[in-house]
Amino acid sequence: MNGVELFLLGRTLMKIGEEAMPVEGLAPQTTSVRTVLVVVSDLREHPETSVGDIAGRTGLPQSAVSGAVARLREAGSIVTGPDPRDRRRTLIRAAPEVSARLAEVRSSSIAGALASAAHTDDPAEIAELVAMLETLARRLSPRTG
Predict the structure, then answer these.
(1) What is the pLDDT averaged over residues 98-116?
(2) Which of 118, 50, 121, 117 is nearest to 80 (CA)?
(3) What gap in Å lies between CA 54 and CA 51, rounded to an integer?
(4) How far is 145 from 133, CA to CA, in rounded Å?
(5) Residue 31 DSSP class
(6) How confident is the model at residue 26 (pLDDT cuts 50, 70, 90)?
(7) Residue 126 and residue 111: Cα distance in Å, rounded?
(8) Would you put residue 59 in left (φ > 0), alpha (ψ -120 to 50) or beta?
(9) Using one digit for the tens of pLDDT, what is the confidence trace for 33-91?
(10) CA 114 to CA 126: how far, in whole Å?
(11) Sheet with 78-83: strands ordered across
């Protein structure tokens, strides 16, 4: 595998992840799932930050970051408040408790989206793919805390 193939695999995995996100009961959104996930990823690495900081690190437009932050706040996943050092700036942090939406996302299965992408309905094959992805995630995911 070369760098291009790895990049393309990453894009494929990202699309599968988007497909696996539960959307039942959600109103139509102007901010894409991908943008929200990029913002969530940045928040994991920078637990107290601002819209401008996220935009600077991710390359997303501030309007897209603001939309994602609004969506995450509405879902109860984050809280916002004024920066005590600069009251003009709003800080973003993870919510102190897991929201119902976040619990739903965390408990959702990737099996259906993975089966569709792999063009299989064989439970053993899907289980094998899930296990490989879990191993890859353990090996490559950033360590937190």
Answers:
(1) 88
(2) 50
(3) 5
(4) 22
(5) S
(6) low
(7) 6
(8) left
(9) 888 889 998 998 998 999 999 999 999 999 999 999 998 998 889 999 998 888 888 89
(10) 7
(11) 48-49, 86-94, 78-83
